[in-house]
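Narrative of activities, Objective 1.

The group set out to show that a structural description can be obtained from nothing but a protein's sequence at a throughput compatible with the screening campaign. Below is one input-output pair from the validation batch, recorded exactly as produced.
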Amino acid sequence: MRLGLAGTGRIGTSHAETLKSFDEVSSVVVADVDAARAQAAAAKLGVEAAADIPSLFASSLDGLVIAAATDAHPELILQAVDAGIPVFCEKPVAADIPGTLAVIDKISGADVPVQIGFQRRFDAGYAAARAAVASGELGWLHTLRATTFDPAPPPAEYVAHSGGLFRDCGVHDFDVVRFVSGREVVEVYAVGANKGERFFVDAGDVDTAAATLTLDDGTLAVVSLTRYNGAGYDVRLEVLGSAGNAVVGLDDRVPLTSVEPGVQPLPGPAYPGFMERFRPAYVSELKAFLDVAAGRAPSPCGAADALEAFYIAEACEVSRRERRPVRVDEVRV
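Output recorded for this entry:
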């Protein structure tokens, strides 16, 4: 297979390196709005570089991976679908709900698969938790507790254009709550706080947040988020049922410190960030895309799934801003 990749930043370069390692991939060609960056990435990885995005689309591709800036996602997805090229795109589909709906509307009649990058669905722990729920071994669920704690905040420039903590960060937790539980979120109540850098306030954002989600069967989910977890990158999910529980992310590198007498500290070290924590999941996700692109499997995470997670994030943002419970149906367009 000959695969293209648009966007050669940190995650794009990592994806290109992964794609190159697959036996089924004969060649990888990369492009970026910054042609020099694409050339540098190609030279480092030993792959091809297209002169620009139009040249990338003219490269006889069997599939396209999009890791460009968010505002470029809609146009690149539509170009690929119009050209009959199966496409994998990092989340989100677009920067807002109307933009996401516009893309879904335009691709809905096309017979070209689109996969959106929610890599936690391909993490072994989340997959095992989903299987435990589906098998019934946990009994009926009463609580899910999801955590995403970044060790340090991103740059101010990133925060200003990120869409906010719920849309940029919490959306992964919202997606896996749906994925693991098999249920839909119907109502949210969210709060946020700022105790860190001023640029979060300037961007209308928060550096720490919590949201209580009510699922359609009455199960409760609590999502906790922060940009300031000095102990290290901490991503977990607790799935608690009437007959048992399943915990994702509770390994030797989880940055937790017990103060109970006689309890030995975990060996560590903590994961420094999401790329290290989810590297195997990113590989599995792209392997799945090869099957999608080859027509061997349907998309495991389509644009409609991304939209549902975005709706929950949007409802949380409205709830935080207006200090009230918000039905997810309120933000559906």
